[in-house]
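Sample intake sheet
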Amino acid sequence: MPDLFAEPEALKPLAERMRPQSLDEVVGQQRVVGEGKPLRRALEAGRVHSMVLWGPPGCGKTTLALLVAKYADAQFKAVSAVLSGLADVRKALAEAEGNFAQGRRTVLFVDEVHRFNKAQQDAFLPHIEKGVILFVGATTENPSFELNSALLSRCRVHVLEAVEQGDIVQALKRALADTERGLGELQLAVDDEALGMIAQAADGDVRRALTLLEIAAELADDSVSGPRRIDETTLTQVLADRTRRFDKGGEQFYDQISALHKSVRSSDPDAAVYWLTRMLDGGCDRAYLARRMTRMAVEDVGLADPRAWRMALDAWDTYERLGSPEGELGLAQLAIYLAMAPKSNAAYKAYNQARAVIGQTGTLEVPLHLRNAPTKLMKGLGYGKDYQYDHDAEGGVALDQQCLPDALGDTTFYQPVERGLELKLGEKLSALRAARRQARRKPGSDEK
């Protein structure tokens, strides 16, 4: 096998120097490359297939692509969809054609493949089919949405996960002990608690953890005799500006807003304020969150607690007036209130049912007695005839007056739930509907 990793190491960052050189050195991802797993068996047997690696930053996508080339005894060629255009892709494919003619395969690694448009993605298809390239695409976005179906049909998608804290600690310990590629020669003194803090701050990203360790090593206390120590003061400096994983508009974004909405719907205020704060922490647009929670107030709380609608608008207005961070408290209070409020989607269901009926029945005529009659001609045609002014009727409701088109008769759309204010609304509506049925019965008929 060619040694793809035998390049000058001196100026490389620690994360690059410590990149795994075999499957045994890979931390995490045991579900994909663990002992006995299909991908590992295929790689060790040299039976490599084109694939898409989907996972968060720092989970090992590039490393796995390099290992695919190493185990397949293939040439490795990388292009980045961020930096490369169609001309670069064609050049890489031409090189692969040359290797193929000489009897050698090429692993073409396309980083951030989701950033290529459909035409650029299509350029790989014939070369994958002919076996000229073993395609390995890396993406942080859901391939189902970002890659075209033709490319997906020719590749197997492997889902990688954020690396767990314990696995990251093992990678850090390996770097501290390795005297050739790592920091072993420095003889750093780092306790398990400090390594745990670095691993936690890395938030599932091994590359980030190793970068933090390298920075900490440069700042380590060497004022005393013996090993240089990475102490609490050093870690405070290094970890001061840590941030969590979040993508404004990507898979994590939609997963988290879904979690917020469903936590509110499930009446779980703790989960609701957690997911809201996660999104605020990630830099999500505050106006977007206010808009979505207003939707929750209308769709999921509804008429069971109409105050939620007003509170949502007030929280939105409060944030626009105060800004961050003070206005974020209004959004947090709103999330908690929405979660605690009684829930009803009765109005939401009534609206959707009415839309469905309209789609099925078309343009039904407005009953003549409900039509306005501003001209003599319209009055002569019967517009407004026999209309009953409800305020003049006994009880303020003309019970025998039909307001739906004749073809719909007594169709009902709104069915209140037995929660919150709708419990009272339901009681009133049930009595009103019964009174209407009684008033509309024809004289001499028996109600069934």
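Comment: The chain has a mean pLDDT of 88. Residues 366-440 form one domain.
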